[in-house]
Amino acid sequence: MCRHAAxxxxxxxxxxxxxxxxxxxxxxxxxIVWTIAAITIAAIVVSTFSFVMSITKQNSQYVTDQLxxxxxDCANNLEQxxxxxxxxxxxxxxxxxxxxxxxEGLYGEMGNVYNSFLNMLYMQYNANFIAVIxxxxxxxxxxxxxxxxxxxxxxxxxxxxxxxxxxxxxGALKVSFSNRYHNSRKYTLTLYFPVYxxxxxxxxxxxxxxxxxxxxxxxxxxxxxxxxxxxxxxxVEGNIVSTQDESQIGNRIAFAEQITGDQGRxxxxxxxxxxxxxxxWNFYMINEVEALSLYRGCFGTILILLAVMLVVTGTAxxxxxxxxxxxxxxxxxxxxxxxxxxxxxxxxxxxxxDMDSDGxxxxxGFNIMMDEIDVLMxxxxxxxxxxxxxHLYALQSQIQPHFLYNTLECIHWQALSEGNKExxxxxxxxxxxxxxxxxxxKDIITLETELAHVRNYxxxxxxxxxxxxxxxxxxxxxxxxxxxxxxxxxxxxxxxIYHGIRVKEGKKGTIEIAIREAxxxxxxxxxxDGVGMVKEQLAVINQNISNHNWDVGYGISNINKxxxxxxxxxxxxxxxxxxxxxICVEIxxxxxWQEEPDRGYEGEV
Length: 605
Known about the structure:
Oligomer: single chain
Protein name: Sensor histidine kinase
Subcellular location: Membrane
Keywords: Kinase, Membrane, Phosphoprotein, Transferase, Transmembrane, Transmembrane helix
Distance between the termini: 56 Å
Low-confidence stretches: 393-400, 598-605
Radius of gyration: 51 Å
Strand content: 15-25%
Largest sheet: 6 strands, antiparallel
Pfam families: HATPase_c (PF02518), His_kinase (PF06580)
Domain HAMP: 325-378
């Protein structure tokens, strides 16, 4: 049985241990440990993140700088090729060949053109062949380091030219990176440039074709790099025109939509993508670097940082535990005395002779607190005596309303016996008015009682103001039993008289009380045909009616606040203008409350 009890204690949750088992010292130790651990983890995370971000930024900049250099080299190569083919097109023999309109003219220039091509092939070591096509005569001249049958020039020239792309935004030069020539054995760069007359730059007379082995990207890949990366040359549409893996040539790169502007970098699928426009050419040099290769160099530093932080954390925990032990020694003594107080010994006091300065302050505070408790207990006893006396006075005051009713009743019968019906009527109405106002201490009354209260009030007011107020009630009898807060309608009727009817020209008017159901609510309306208000005034009243604003009126605000406290802020008063004249006040109450008789607010609210 003891083992079961011990097992039950061991199975206590952390929350139960915190609330029921551990003392303040142990809780403080736990809080300190958690705090130091949280600070350590946060410091490690922030330091590691900052360090990694710094290294990443440096490495990313290095990659971008290298890519800029490669893009510039590529642009220089293309500019060199452009200069070559431009110079070739300006050669006088090439011009004569392209402008020839007869076979004799063609044959006459073939030797000279062949020699010009031969010189250019010597100058451009990586050129495979150079060809010129006379488009008018549909004839060509070919010279190259590769035999025409091996290059398949005749077979693929027209197809490759159609699939070539414009090299620059401005200019007629077109380029093609493909393996169509040379029987698909290798990918080569082919330049296509129209030959214009040097005197009349109107229509081209021919077409120059230069095919080269461009190994720029291969040479870049052969360079040692600290990162694992892939290098691409793409056109502006994102189609790969050159890369180390030739099987990807012609495919569209996956992140083509993110490449905008002349240069930039972004992350895509765990890779750092850097791109650089190749000069003024319609190509991009793109370098794709694995994220892990950017971080690889900082792993050792992170491990050292972790080790240092763990050592610091262990030292801080040891020091904190020692400090809390010394700090809570006097507190434990105070707790022991407080246990005596909890057992009912309010005369307990702490002796401070054997405590340090902090302990003495705590003990002094405890002793002062116990003295104050003695004083407060005496005050509570005195307040209870005063409360009993006030309750007695309240019971005695309930006798006084009966004296008021009896006195008014005597005046009523005395006036009636003397034949003064007006005084009799007014006194009787006043007696009933005050009887409903008191309502035996109840704050919730029936609508029938509230309407009777309004009628008694209007009897008095009509006798006072020479019958200037006509009163209409449009409430079916089935609604007489519904319950509303006492003195809800009468203050609104009074407001209509003093601010609507009395101030209008003629000083006669009508007040109407009606009722309707609106979905889950019951709406009472109090209408008058008085002078009314402008829209701005009504807006101010509706906005401030819940705030006890003196501009709204204390009585109206009081009615609204009582309804809100009973039923919620969605219920209460709303003021609006009638179509013809006067004001309509809508009182919204919950219908559900009327259907639950046991949920009343009988008595004082």
